[in-house]
User: Fold these one by one.
Assistant:
Number 1:
Amino acid sequence: MGRKADKRVDLKMPPGALHTYRRLLRYLKPHKAMFAVGVLGMTMFAATDAGWAAFVRFFLDGTFVEKDPRMVWLVPVALVGLFILRGLGDFMQTYCPGYVGRRIVKTLRGQIFDRYVHLPVSYFDRNASGVLLSKLTYNTEQVANATTESVTVFIRDSLTILGLIGYLLYLNPKLTLFSLIIGPLIAVLIRRINLLFRRYSRRIQNSMGDVTRVAKEAIEAPRVIRVFNAQDYEARMFDEVIEHNRRSHMKLMMTKGLSNPIVQTIAATGLAGVLYLATVDAIAGRMSVGEFTSFIAALMLITAPLRRLVNVAGPLQQGIAAAQSIFEILDTPPEHPGGQHRVPRARGEIQYRDVGFQYPSSADPVLHGIGFEARQGETVAIVGRSGSGKSTLVGLLPRFYDATSGQVLVDGVDVREFSLDALRAQMSLVSQDVVLFNDTIRSNIAFGHPADDAQIEAAARAARVTEFSEQYPLGLETVVGDRGALLSGGQRQRIAIARALLRNTPILILDEATSALDTELERQIQGQLEALMANRTTLVIAHRLSTVEKADRILVMDAGRVIESGTHQELLAHGGQYAVLHRLQFSE
Ligand SMILES: Nc1ncnc2c1ncn2[C@@H]1O[C@H](COP(=O)(O)OP(=O)(O)O)[C@@H](O)[C@H]1O
Ligand SMILES: [Mg+2]
């Protein structure tokens, strides 16, 4: 069969943290300059901490030991200078990384969205929409957080600590080296904590996806939930996911809560030792008051950034976990762009040659040995029980999925040889569930298609959209509400028909296009539909046989096979399944 390569199973392991860091860094690259200014701010901010410790010594020794009269004005000036530097640094370290972070969020959101609209249809069979939404909203925020606040803390506080250590070394190398012994111990600890943070963060993100998913389902189906009294059922489902979310959060809290005291206790023990040695030095007269106080001040000043550094591990690891899940999406291959074949306008001949199909997710084939042909301008109707494979069959034409065996051809060319956009430019689809966007009727008809107002209005009139849109004060400029909620099913369907009319493609697919219309309205719209079908090759799936009777050929499907085919008259004369269906319809 040779089509296995097309299944594109992604066997790649999730990339490691280091890989993710590096990849995130690439997003930082275009904003190098801005980020550098931010780092400069962090450096200034950090320098003021060491500066503060030095100031203590300068002030104490100058005032009390040397009794220098210049201290009277030097001290206040130095203090104000120190805080102006600190304030400037503070602004730069807040604004610049924030700027970079928001840019990165925008880029990531753009890329994820772009991927969402280009992923193969099958991707959405496997992934809940709520989870995908949550990646777009929640995970990107976490990446922003990690790349801005957390990175700021990380860089600034590392610098602060380095600065302070430098100053300590300058003051008293022996004492400093002793205090640094506990360094490696703390480093090992922080690493272990990081690992835990990342694990729990991933869990939280996954459960956030579940929270969005369940909530979204509930919000989108208010009627069903009420009429079935399913409130409790939904609430229980929701309770389950929020409980899981809470537990994962608590595990993170536990890690967070424990990490600080443990690190600080170790640090304090070390500090106690240092204090002991320093006191010995001071008593022996090897250290002045200023030096002693300044040394202890610097040591104390290290604890705050150290504490922040330990705490930042959480958000930083959350960001890494979030970035990993985002990169997973970005690494999922989009739809294959198809072959090279392009035509400005196809004639619109359709051929199915011995087509078999099986959904990647299902155990059994859904279509078997489907073969039929529709010549230019012909209408082929497909009827059959629900679940018999009708929608699947027509879905192979725009390549929502590819046939697992056999061939689908347009104008005698395998659909896989067409470039995907050129192929789809040849066809319009009107289906059962019309998706409208929260926009005006006019833009819903145009739907990105370059058309002038006159064309849109002509299409709206032909599809009888104007009939109801004129009743609104804003006419075609009326906004249809979320997913067209303000319109009836029939009105939505008419907008979809107008959309197809406007696109004017040689091939038309109607998948139960009129199912939302009542018989009366369907009869009224029949004329419009026939106008739409005229001069187009049409595959029409319909429940009501009146739509089907005039078709050039009718395929009767059952369990993925075509069990009868012919014209209305032929099939009636044949007295098979179609005849039975027909009789049922009339007795209705
Ligand atoms: N995305 C999917 N993944 C797996 N199985 C599917 C999917 N869509 C439909 N099916 C299955 O394929 C069969 C045919 O479905 P469909 O083509 O929608 O039938 P019809 O349009 O005739 O009602 C059904 O058994 C259905 O359960
Ligand atoms: Mg269907």
Number 2:
Amino acid sequence: MLKVAISGSTGLVGSRIQELLYHDVVFIPLLRSKVDIADKESVSEFVGQNDFDIMLHLAGYTAVDQAEKEREECKKINVDGTRNLFDEVTKKKKKFIYISTDFVFDGKNSPYDESSQPNPIGWYAKTKYEGEKIIGNKGMIVRIAYPYRASYGPKKDLIKGIRSYLEEGKKIAMLTDTIITPTFIDDIAFSLKHLLVHFSNEVYHVVGSGSYSPYDIAQKIAEAFKLDKSLIGKTTYDEFYKNSKIRPRDLTIKSKKNNSWKMKSIDEGLEEIKRQVKLKLPQT
Ligand SMILES: NC(=O)c1ccc[n+]([C@@H]2O[C@H](COP(=O)([O-])OP(=O)(O)OC[C@H]3O[C@@H](n4cnc5c(N)ncnc54)[C@H](OP(=O)(O)O)[C@@H]3O)[C@@H](O)[C@H]2O)c1
């Protein structure tokens, strides 16, 4: 079986990948409690002591807004951490997959596919793009967008965040003039299963099959879970982000390459969440 070292395996995306692919792959987790990727020595030790075929690198500083205030910390993890891992893994002549983000695009020229030119606008996005440049064409870069899943305790994804507000009867103002591409994490895992086996030093977009405004997404969530739509108000990009325009406005993301797995639309993803929750299928 393929041996895959995985960083970020306790996170929103990584923990689900591990949960879904453990029959197909032997995972060797790089745990933050033991290895800080920003620390060259501990990375070198981890890579030296473990036998693996591919390093799947998901670990990162992911708090997009907070990153503007914690620039050094964000850079240390996303840029230095990625460089430390990549250097050691390539020295060992092993393969590298870097999980990146739709945020590398500026949102002014959508739709974006794998051949589009990144132009990140916020600090988090800039550090993720720096990470991409470290990998260059010597590894695989997989860009994902707005990942969501049925359930994950430590943090709320976008879908869960909206759902929680509505379930608690709280009003929310949702953007009507911004576009995002939500991606069901199970689909990311199954696409990666293919990409791990058919490895190639290329850029891939592994993203949901539809792009929507957050307002439309909130409407769909309310419909799917029979929640009160009247709680959903409207806002605009200029109104909502008046002081910090660090998030791209139109992230319509496509893939010209990912034909291995059918990615779900938000309607399909919400149906699958309902099914998993009803069946109480394994979740973390
Ligand atoms: N979530 C999104 O909306 C989104 C969108 C596009 C792309 N991505 C990318 O997808 C990847 C996974 O995101 P996620 O949302 O699953 O992340 P997450 O839930 O925030 O988890 C981050 C992971 O990185 C680990 N980590 C952080 N700093 C570390 C360090 N210094 N050394 C070792 N491990 C460290 C964390 O360990 P602990 O749990 O121990 O802290 C955790 O496992 C990231 O690279 C992110 O940039 C995410």
